[in-house]
Amino acid sequence: MPKRTDLRRILIIGSGPIVIGQACEFDYSGTQGCRALREEGFEVVLVNSNPATIMTDPDLADRTYVEPLTPEFVAKIIERERPQALLPTLGGQTGLNIAVALAEDGTLDRFGVELIGAKLEAIRKAEDRALFKQAMERIGLALPRSGHAHTLDEARAIVEDVGYPAIIRPSFTLGGTGGSIAHTPDELERAVRWGLQTSPLGSILVEQSVIGWKEFELEVMRDLADNVVIICSIENVDPMGVHTGDSVTVAPAQTLTDKEYQLMRDASIAIIREIGVETGGSNIQFAVNPEDGRLVVIEMNPRVSRSSALASKATGFPIAKIAAKLAVGFTLDEVRNDITRETPASFEPAIDYCVVKFPRWAFEKFPEADRTLGTQMKSVGEVMAIGRTFKEALQKSIRSLEQDRWGLTLDRPLDGDELRRLLSVPNPDRIFAVGDAYRAGLTTADIQSMTRIDPWFLENMREIVAFEPRIAEAALTDGDVLRRAKQLGFADRRIADLTAATEAAVRARRLEQGIRVTFKTVDTCAAEFVAHTPYLYSTYEEEDEAPPTARPKVVILGSGPNRIGQGVEFDYCCVHAAFALRDLGVEAIMVNCNPETVSTDYDTSDRLYFEPLTLEDVLNIVERERPLGVVVQFGGQTPLKLAVPLRDAGVPILGTSPDAIDRAEDRKRFNALIAELGLNQAAGTTVRSLPEAQTVATTIGYPVLVRPSYVLGGRAMRLVHDDQDLREYMGEAVQVSAEHPVLIDKFLEDALEIDVDAVADAERVVVGGVMEHIEKAGIHSGDAACALPPYSLGEGQVRELRAQTRALARALGVIGLINVQFAIRGDLIYVLEVNPRASRTVPFVSKAIGQPLAKIATAVMLGRSLSTYTGLEERELSHIAVKESVFPFVKFPGVDVVLGPEMKSTGEVMGIDRDFRKAYLKAQIAAGETLPASGTVFISVRNRDRRQVTSLAKRLADMGFTLVATDGTARVLKRHGMPVEVIHKVGEGHRPNVVDLLEGGQIAVVFNTPEDGRARKDSAIIRRTAVAQNVAYYTTVDGIQAAIGAIEALLKGEHRVRSLQEYHAGLR
Amino acid sequence: MSTTWLVLRDGRTFRGRPLGAVGEGSGEVIFNTAMQGYQEILTDPSYRGQIVAMTYPMIGNYGVNEEDVESRRPWVNGFIVKEASAIASNFRAGTSLDDYLRRHGIVGIQDIDTRALTRHLRDHGAQDGIISSVETDPRGLLERARALPGLIGRDLVAEVTADAPYGWSEGRWELSRGYVAPPPPRFKVVAYDCGIKFNILRQLSTVGCDVTVVPAATPAADVLVRKPDGVFLSNGPGDPEGVPYLIESVRGLLGRVPIFGICLGHQILGLAAGGRTYKLPFGHHGANHPVKDLVTGKVEITAQNHGFAVEPDSVSRLGWEPTHVNLNDTTCEGLRHREWPVFSVQYHPEASPGPHDANYLFHRFTDLMTRNGG
């Protein structure tokens, strides 16, 4: 069946901001979708609120709308663009839910838009658990016993049947949000309440537990001619009970005989047919009873998923790209396999290596959060590693995580109780604890009984651990032992630890012995056909099959796993670097280990090394490729921390020198720089002990900002108010020492904060964007909302900020990107931080101003002059772009949602419009904050904010809102003659209190600025309840002010949508 | 740990560790890309004369059980893996791969760069080779590898076929019940055993065939005298031109009884029809080959295991037409006669190991017999 000719324009919906459960894998799928459709001559209209993505690059679609992902906004885009079709399967659960809403409310019919890929009925059948269950029964497949509940009583009745433990799964949520396991009636009550709250439909599935069963996933593709292929099988190392996003997984399946695998394959084909997903990728999960092989279906995603991204990277089969082609009518046999070029896409990839995916959690950011893993996903990112064996791939995945872990160990003493707990209750450390359990003499049977992990995986881990004594004894003297260690995946660093040598010594010894890494190709076909795409992984084998080319080349180091503080923004920059290199005729070599990204797509760069970003692994590549240089500016802290060691190893670093990076990071040198330029900075210095810290803090005066040096995303950064705080911090949080110095800065209270992104060559510095934070200093810039251009600064101030940025860039000799963070208090501008590298805001700025800063910076690093770019210099924008952050608090009950100097957001959205209020409103809607047009507002502000609260409250009252406040705030308002109801605080013991009102759905928005320090704990429950109830909340007076402005804009009129291409055209 | 060598005829040598029996094994070295199903592969008689290298690097993970066998014993002349699993993990597992191979005297090698080997075979063709865990000098092995006879023209069928006719009574496999009893038979089928896989027999009996398996050298007359509703020509090892007696028998059956051939059976049909077969550079061995049914236009993912193929042009003048084509390399995957009730496929609809997509062909066979008045 050839391409459909009745379609011309197709709408693709993205997945919005990065959240837990929905990360940059959908940037990857959306980007592939856009490219695949345009390649076939279709016009693509794209909508996604996330500016940090590649897919929202104006080059990738014909019309790119960075607008909120709500049915209302998407309907407006449909009305304006009149696409003939909507492809709903590439934008995760968000995209799918919007498509369903638009189909159900008649919008699609009204504008004659056809759902392609998956029809409404198929989506419903797959997503609605009752319909899905019926469908499975029709084709004779078993599901765990279950029932639907809308109330606690209904849930209890079902548990009578399915028994404890029972799994609670809310309908229509993503990443298992709101899901949990109940072992007792008490837990059931809690679980049901939470589940009902999080489900948009207020419905949950109560399901028989198959905890401990083996868990598998199959990635299935189907075309319009009903051809079906399985792209990849995935087996979870962590058995049922842990969300697959939180499980260590392996591809392909390892412990199934052909007979069992084929049963699963047959079931998958029957399922995709019965559900009726017409084309494209679906993901089907199964559980298998290890005792007798019994198979039950867990669920199906009728769309491209996180696992499809993993499967695409694991096999070289680009699922999203091919799904897009199938959606427009092609059949699998009409699409070529890009890698072999000769063979069609209608086949099932054969793998001749082992792939391990390891999740990356961010519990260090949420110390109060429950680290137990269950049915709700908690990880924020993942790495993938490829090796010839599971042992090698597992060890590569461990070092890919960048958690300073180099082997299968927690590297700390564990007593028997702790070890048992770590093994029996799923948690992020469990796999490492397995290694330690073997070291402690436990047997595979012991460990299996506690973890329920399949003995095959355990035995492989045992083999790793069992080889360590050999390494300790002979790795440095016996070449065979060293070679074997490398084949088992041991990092040089781990071998160094085991032999009490240095990593450099191990490396030298290894090279002396001629033990060199070899590279193999990921080729979809286990070498049966010649591969034309150099998608490579390292292993210690005999043959290296992909010698470097003779072309000039540059290595780009990627950003590794997504984490808080380092996400898709950096991948965006790396991808742009690759595109720029291609344009310049230089071979682009990408190194990264994150399977969710566009950078690890084999056709983003000329050569892809899917490798850990450690010194060892990078040196292996660089020594072989001999590039013109390495780009370390774009991947965030990951490559940056390799800059100096790489330089020391003689590797050319492109652009800004490692020395300049050090000058910006090293406090002493930085102070000297600021002094030399005659600029201001907050008083502060580096300390190496607690007494030193106390002296400094007393001298400069509390409050002070403290943080370990060389960190990203404000890791462990804290606002400290008094000596007690300081002692706690220095002792417990960071363990300050000579090796681990801590920076102390005077905190600039009530200062405005500004971010500036610029690009520099040897002659010029061009400021790309000046962003004014909405929230005052003290909130991490990655968490603060910001506006571009600034909305309250004077022209003179902006000019001065630009001038200071230029001076700093010049003084540091920046070649490429630079980001400067400023604070303004009174008339004084302070330099807070200088980052001579790509910042988190580069994609946001690029999209706001219509200039690809990362691409330009890459060209500049290769010697191109900035003067060759026209229209780069600051232009007047006729629009304003607002960035807002999104947070994972809903996943972490019990964690306070107040923001501070440590970054906690997982993603961001952009609102763009003609004026600030509208843009801010869009940003809020896009971030999922539903600002009300009427209703009751709860206000409670700290003492310092009471002066400002009156005018804000007045604006609300003028718009017809009812005000509810706690005692203190209410008194202030009453004094100013404002009508306000007083409500009890939670601790007062009187009911109803504010939490009762929130839970009763009587509050439309929460404005609560908490007191500093320990006092804020009292009000945490209010904010937590707001999160749980999905009520919009604002915790800074600046945020409240902006939100009220947005409500005013909301009341004033309709939303308007406009594409980036139109905004940018207005600039020329 | 002793050294084991793999030496190919063209001199490419790999040094590894022993697997299975200690000794030597020689034959044509080929690679198989299936990711599971090693036990079925080991026991598939079509691999007689061959040393099989698995491209999937970790083999033996789920051990060896009593059910997943395709004949009464393993037939491969040698087995090559990257890493043989030290543990067998599966509820049905009986023994480990290493034990199984040792018990059956099969010499293997592990811990070699199987991907390098695969690429070598892909680029230079499947070729004779020797695995030895007793010889210390690979140079001697090379000389002997060069003296190996190859597959061309050899009758390997004689090594694997049944000695005498036998009946079959096992149906398909079910998870909780194992092999179940087949439904009451509706057709009488004689199956030529050129190294027949049990799963073909299980599939035939599942679709209602009462199967009598006969040795490959059974003349046509002896088959016709049984008045079968249909004749089945099985898979088997080696070069179809090495079994002229079977080609002769099939000539005597063409047009007289419905015939269904698989793999070697398909090639034998091609030769009996007067066509030609040829050797593929490294054959098709795996479970992921896309085949298009030229009648329905649908693509099926197939299990394959063959080193020779039929030249479709050589039979198209003789009343035959291609029914299936391999989408990877456009080789002929299926034939049928325009008038006679005869059809065949090059691949393995019985799967085991591999996907079940082509299972409909067994129904096509019963349909054919029905139409023919069976």
Question: How is this structure best summarized?
Answer:
With 1068 residues, chain A is an alpha/beta fold. Chain A contains 37 helices and 38 strands. In chain A, strand 30 and strand 31 form a beta hairpin.
Description:
The complex is a heterodimer of chains A (1068) and B (374). With 1068 residues, chain A is of the alpha/beta class. Helices cover 37% and strands 19% of the residues of chain A. Chain A is built from 37 helices and 38 strands. In chain A, the strands form 7 sheets. Chain A has a 7-stranded antiparallel sheet, sandwiched between helices. A 7-stranded antiparallel sheet of chain A has the order 31-30-27-28-29-32-33. A 6-stranded mixed sheet of chain A has the order 17-18-21-20-19-22, with helices on both faces. In chain A, helix 1 crosses helix 11 (319-327), helix 15 (444-451) packs across helix 16 (455-474) and helix 16 packs antiparallel against helix 17. Chain A starts with 8 loop residues before the first strand and ends with a helix. The model of chain A has no long low-confidence stretch (mean pLDDT 93). Chain B is an alpha/beta fold and 374 residues long. Chain B folds into 2 domains: 4-145, Glucose Oxidase, domain 1 (3-Layer(bba) Sandwich), CATH 3.50.30; 157-371, Rossmann fold (3-Layer(aba) Sandwich), CATH 3.40.50. Chain B has helices spanning 38-42, 97-103, 114-124, 138-146, 157-160, 198-206, 220-224, 244-253, 264-272, 312-316, 360-371, and strands at 4-8, 13-20, 24-32, 50-54, 58-59, 78-81, 83-84, 107-110, 127-132, 166-167, 173-174, 178-179, 187-193, 209-215, 230-233, 259-262, 277-293, 299-310, 320-326, 332-337, 342-345. A 10-stranded mixed sheet of chain B has the order 10-14-13-15-16-21-20-19-17-18, with helices on both faces. In chain B, strands 1-2-8-6-4-3-9 form a 7-stranded mixed β-barrel. In chain B, helix 8 crosses helix 9 (264-272). The longest helix of chain B has 12 residues, at 360-371. Chains A and B meet through helix 9 and helix 16 of A and helix 3 and strand 17 of B.
